[in-house]
């Protein structure tokens, strides 16, 4: 009887049993003996012919495991000798003595390290260390695969991290305030017979009375952006044109703006107080140590304003962007202020309510509506109601809410788009998933190469869990390398990415721990996801199958991988078509004939009353400058970046509903300066035309006017971004004579259809002049600007020169599209890259599988070219299928997008052709490497081994 | 000279290994010693001595075949290393020299 030295049989109890069996076998009677006899004999043997079992048990208990075999063997052998020599009884007694002789430290002490002869029970750390070692070796041996895998995963992780950072920033907007969960913004919903508006604003009275009369409301923060004003440092006469924000004392109490200096909570309590940000203090005073100093504002020149606190700069993920706040108390008592605050129904203030703990926002909103209805009576047909929006929703859930509470000259609060965030998140997960799947693809494609290794491991005793552990470790090693690479790449890309997204993102040691948590989670999940499939698949096969080098091919697997490649390429093609269409459309928008000449038009803002009053002089001086060809004075310009006011117009005496039109105040030189073509009638001739208007074609058509013949039209109402109000307070309408019709010109983005437009003379009851627009020649623009500044400071020494070039401003309309274009280019590059990785994996797999077939074909005389064509042809089919799927999708998507533009290009067939051919070309390039490699292999090599 | 780290029992065991070579293993050694000295020698003592000698580098061991008497367990055979041989020689030399010096005296007394 031969015992295999296996650790499984080395347990104490088993040892005794084995020896008993052995003795039985030696002396046991043959089958001829009766059962009872053999039973008694074996009982006798087991009791007396064997060493005392208790002694054995004692020994196995105290003796170190690695010595047991020697010790027990010696004892038993000696027992057998003695039993034969002196009888069993003496031998048994001697046995006990011998066992006790082993009670000494060198036999009891357990070895520190597993002894080499003892079968090692591998602990997790040791196994892991071994797995890492093996992984590194196998990665080092297959450099191409390793770099492909690392590149793919690093790419996926880079995308994921960049987008993750962006999303994290967007989703944590406005959460820096400690009581943010209790802060709600008042949203006013106003419905009139004509239109419906949802405005993030409330009237003064609502915001003031709510905390007094509604028990749930604890406090109110209220602010309004009044427009731009000159703020001056009297010490050095430094002045800046900045948006002035008016805030009540609750503003600092409800929100936690971090304070650098001064009392951050009570700084707006007193009249004539100003709170400013650190950045603005630096600009105005060159120091942030400014608490107690004085500034002046040009619209309240008689008041010395004291700086009471300096705030830290707003974090990038804050919706608030004010540079300084004037205390509301300052303006109290001014007639204009009293008049503005009296109306319960107005929309003058952006209002935030701090609710008490556990107050229900819906119930509170209802109470606010009750309060409103108790105090105000809207006109018939008009209804006004309030809702409360949580502060956390302000950034991402405000698409259909107008940012009221601001002057028309102030830009509205920037908000994010939830749709884009969703798309971004999907793209991030998608790219990472595809990268993982590509890893799986490459790993399973290489299964054949590693089958032998796995077989040997299994044969020498590896459990399935060991192999799974090994493959997971390998994917972990690859992912960790890719992750480190991705973090480096992210840090390299962040400056450009920040510029692109207009954020201040960073990924370093100081980054929020939650981002790192997310990143590490992504790392672990990625390695598990990408390693799981090969780990489970490869460890499943029986060692016999693996060592016999049976090629296992899995049909279902292959078709899954094929459909994946088709999918990836379809997306790439859609992206390419979209990129081409977007590029063409943006170019079309920038080059379209707008109905006026936008080149070399220099727009200078009128920023003070003195300049406005001296406009005629300035205009005359400007036109004397050698570089200036024409100068025009207008209220707004085509391509305007601020609100263009609206008016209601109808033919005098007509009973039809008035039409809505935009209005521009212009002067005599308008047509010539902007090169807007006059179709019929005449242009303005001077002051005598102050109640004349010129219409654009669309307006003329809307009013059924064919010939300008001084017909009278009625302009009863006007609107500056909000609701319509009468032109004159006496409710009379502005009556004007039509003297001309101009050709339609694009005064807005070409997304909009050209709307009816009324050109009124510069002195009219609706608009004020705001700009000088000069047509200049392109030589020495700085000198021209300097000369203009000189002229203007001659009229108003405090005036600040602010200018724009009109073509730049027009390009801003399409900036978002340009941004999308950049994004699309990158995303399409990303998808193409990843699709190529997937294709490469598949090509490798196919070449590997068909190596024998290729060998046979070669032997029979196939040329390298025909073999390459054969291998590539399969993949060509996949890309063609991808194209067939992609074209309709791309056609639908691009048309949908182009519909946003009132004026757009048509999607043409060559765009599809270019994208499709590009995809095929790229795919062939990827595949041909593997195909040529497979086709040039010496057939002897591939055929000789089996 | 590392003479000092060889105990008396160890020396006897080492000698026995040399004498029984190549079939020296603990049971054989213990039986041999019992016969030679007439006193009971436990395998435990022998085993411990063998272990120490192996640690000191005087012996080398390898596993042999499994045998039935041992319940299917393998024997561990010991052989004397070169170092062990040198040490034995030194011990032997010291003793011989000493014996050489005292032998005449004994003869003289007997005469």
From TrEMBL, chain B:
Residues 24-89 form the Transcription regulator PadR N-terminal domain. SUPFAM superfamilies: Winged helix' DNA-binding domain. Pfam families: PadR (PF03551). This is PadR family transcriptional regulator. It comes from Arsenicibacter rosenii.
